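#dry-run=false #mode=assembly
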Amino acid sequence: MSERTLMDGNRATAEGAIAGGCRYFFGYPITPQSHIPERMSLRLPEVGGVYLQAESEVAAINMCYGAAACGAKVMTTSSSPGISLMQEGISYMYGAELPCVIVNMVRGGPGLGNIAAAQSDYWLSTRGGGHGDGQMITFAPWSIQEVYDLTYESFDIALKYRAPVSLLGDAILAQMMEPVQERKPLDAALSQTDWGIGGERHGREKNVITSIYIQPRALEELNHRLYARYAQAAREETRWAELGAEDPEILVCAYGIAARICQTGLELAAAAGVKARLLRPISLFPFPTAPIREWSEKVRKILVVELSMGQFVEDVRLAVEGRCPVEFSGHTGGVVHTPEEVAGVLGNL
Amino acid sequence: MIDTLETMDDAGLELVYTVPACMEPVPMRLCPGCTHPIAHRLCAEIVDELGIADRAVLISSVGCSVFANEFFRLDGAQAAHGRAPAVATGVKRVHPENIVFTYQGDGDLASIGLAETIHAAARGEDITIAFINNGIYGMTRGQMAPTTLLGHKTTTSPYGRSAEDTGYPLDVCALLQTLPGVAFLARESLHAPKYVRRAKRSLKKAFQCQIEGKGFSLVEMLSTCPSCWHMEPLEAFERIEKEVIPQYPLGVFVEK
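#status=ok
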């Protein structure tokens, strides 16, 4: 096995981005992810990139909009309150069909909340991205290797769909350290697109990046174009992983750090004779509807474990469509399940 | 418009004044007597004269400037309300060789986008801002702006703007002129030909500043909004001379 490097999720985000070809970063400090801009401010000048600390998250996302309009691989990172401030810019990005990677190391909300781990921005990311009819391709890593890998791959996915791509981490994944296998650097050059602005035009027709469509039918057409891309993403980017009993009575659905906790919870429950299987979505939008639907016809119950009052559970229920009962175990505000608690809930189902 | 020009040519008339090469020969979606088209044209003439049409990028904003990209044969992007300096920053950092300019009104620049404006200036961001100040929100049909003069009746100051309730008109040039990142800063007016010529000189210097990499440049242009001021165009021009310039004195405040 080749050499691996011990790093936390913040550093893995920065290193995954640089290896993925990201050369432009605009951001604003906020706990628990300030180590990402710090790392980018150190590393980007080394690879000929540009780091700029914006005056606010509002400015940061709009700087990303400008860089993305040039076909650059660009990223911003923040945590929940900062992501709230970026919603306007994200909506403009959908509307203008711009690729960008947006990492949210989620913290407890609402309001200023706290700086502990939470998953309460599920709706904000998968439904949100501000006003209008867009949705956001969203990935949810559960390990530091996966933080690195998903960040690394997201730039090309954003370019493929001409759309913002979001990664949902949390305060634990931001700071937890694990060994990471780094990957071969991807192309960092500006993408050769037929839509990018800037550079020397040499007489080519002008390109304009815009989200204004005054004629209702033209705007409807844009939204259909976006949804055709989401349909393609559902075919090509839907990711999930499963582990546990081959013939389960209970299917546990959890993502990100909650899934990691459930992994140990399932082991404890298995020792007590509970036959359970974990299905963890890696992509939250597009959502792995098909495998959850399939299991819902075979298991007695589904348990959703999530660090919120119940957001992700709604997508599970939509996938299940009443085929079996869906139970919910949630903590919120930065409180995190223990594996013993998960095992206890499983034992009582 | 093209047809008319061709007809003139057929008649053997000499064409001495036409659409600048970097402008689209399309009708502008602006009201009669509005000075936006003059400001548009000045930007276009300067881009042509400086020979930078192949590398100029226009960032339009929200307000009556929202359609600006339709009128220019230039690469461009349409920015969210107030965010044009941030978008321009993103473009300029990717393409330092491009000449990146924003075109923004006073509601956009002096109200919702004041932070983006001041911080772009503080960074000495190498961009140029054409700032149109008509003291009102024109596109939304005449609400009070931070630049609205005291006593001016608008749809949201129906009794006239009072300092007691809403403070005083915001002088953007005064705010910016102490910042070391600012390389060129001027306030001009578009209400009469001699002022238009002055405005063009300042705007051209602002673009030249960027070409020479000297830093942030901004030219404020006092403008009319006959539709929302509820005036005939000529009355609106007179108002600039009599009421607006005394509040917003013209001048070149920074030139490096």
